[in-house]
């Protein structure tokens, strides 16, 4: 691992073992996460974002299985930890806010009880009073009234309030990394913006490393330092957020940006990516994106593209990326 890396994912492959065959959800995915950064994972539904974030905690749902690869946190390969050490790693070192997590709260427990049970599962040296005091502080960070919220049951809070309570709950054991899987799904755009503003404050205040997955590239663009673009179980491009939005090198990345609407832009300039993502059990012989790609050349149909390093911080997986660059920078208001 590099000196400033906090997490290193190496060649992770995940397959779902089905009666009809094996579905490869991740194909040799590698990703370095730097201390204190916010990294965004973007891509359409089924691109592998949730499978990747679940792999970090070794909680891939059955019948999924991590077939090979390594995930390093410091000098520990997470995939080699026994169940006791793995349970300590989860939530204490890395915590996760799951997609629509607010709906997973126990309806018969108060918010305070959720905090107490979470700490009891990972820390044995805290009294309920100490947990309640810390919970109150964290709820204040996410702009909730602790006096009211701690006594409330989940159904007594709005969706946005429950989501903020879940974010506070994810921080109760002082994790170093916070994973957010579609953290604002099913929330209105005003509440989404409010939650992202809070997350920015938490990142600055607590020096948290964040990994955020979303299908909406414009959402993560307002927060991330770097963006990893995923397609059909692979990272096809990764670089800083400025380059992703202004000079993408992969046709799929460019397609995502060009499909994103803007209130200040002519909608006639926006266009959807043609076609549909591939069946992961019947992937193309060559590039996975080739059937949908306007830059496709003969080589794309027969040969899988390897990762090409444009520079130390920019990787792209495309045979014809120079033609994408030649198309020019994207300018969006």
Explain what this protein looks like in three dimensions.
By secondary structure, this protein is α/β, with parallel strands linked by helices. The chain has a domain at 253-333. 33% of the residues lie in helices and 24% in strands. It contains twelve helices and twelve strands. Helix 3 packs across helix 4. The protein starts with a strand and ends in a 7-residue tail after the last helix. The relative contact order is 0.13.
Labels describing this entry:
12 strands; 24% strand; single chain; alpha/beta; eight-stranded mixed sheet; 333 residues; four-stranded antiparallel sheet; 12 helices; globular; 33% helix
């Amino acid at each position: 691992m590099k000196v400033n890396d906090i997490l290193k994912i190496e060649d992770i492959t995940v397959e779902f073992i089905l009666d009809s065959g094996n579905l490869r959800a991740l194909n040799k995915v590698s990703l370095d996460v730097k201390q204190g950064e916010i990294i965004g994972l973007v891509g359409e539904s089924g691109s592998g974002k949730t499978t990747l974030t679940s792999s970090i905690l070794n909680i891939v749902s059955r019948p999924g299985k991590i077939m090979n690869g390594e995930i390093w946190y410091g000098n520990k390969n997470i995939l080699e930890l026994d169940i006791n050490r793995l349970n300590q790693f989860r939530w204490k070192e890395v915590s996760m806010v799951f997609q629509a997590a607010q709906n997973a709260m126990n309806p018969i427990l108060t918010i305070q009880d959720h905090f107490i049970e979470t700490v009891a599962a990972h820390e044995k040296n805290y009294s309920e009073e100490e947990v309640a005091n810390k919970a109150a502080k964290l709820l204040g960070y996410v702009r909730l009234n602790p006096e009211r919220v701690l006594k409330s049951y989940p159904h007594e809070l709005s969706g946005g309030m429950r989501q903020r309570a879940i974010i506070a709950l994810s921080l109760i054991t002082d994790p170093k990394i916070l994973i957010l899987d579609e953290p604002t799904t099913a929330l209105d755009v005003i509440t989404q913006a409010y939650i992202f503003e809070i997350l920015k404050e938490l990142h600055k205040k607590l020096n948290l490393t964040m990994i955020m997955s979303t299908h909406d590239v414009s959402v993560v663009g307002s927060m991330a330092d770097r963006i990893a673009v995923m397609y059909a179980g692979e990272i096809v491009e990764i670089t800083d957020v400025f380059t992703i939005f202004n000079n993408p090198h992969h046709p799929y990345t460019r397609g995502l940006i060009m499909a994103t609407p803007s209130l200040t832009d002519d909608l006639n300039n926006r266009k959807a990516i043609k076609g549909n993502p591939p069946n992961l059990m019947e992937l193309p012989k060559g590039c996975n994106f080739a059937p949908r790609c306007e830059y496709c050349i003969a080589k794309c149909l027969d040969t899988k593209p390897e990762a090409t390093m444009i520079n130390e911080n920019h990787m792209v997986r495309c045979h014809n990326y120079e033609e994408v660059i030649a198309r020019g920078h994207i300018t969006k208001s």
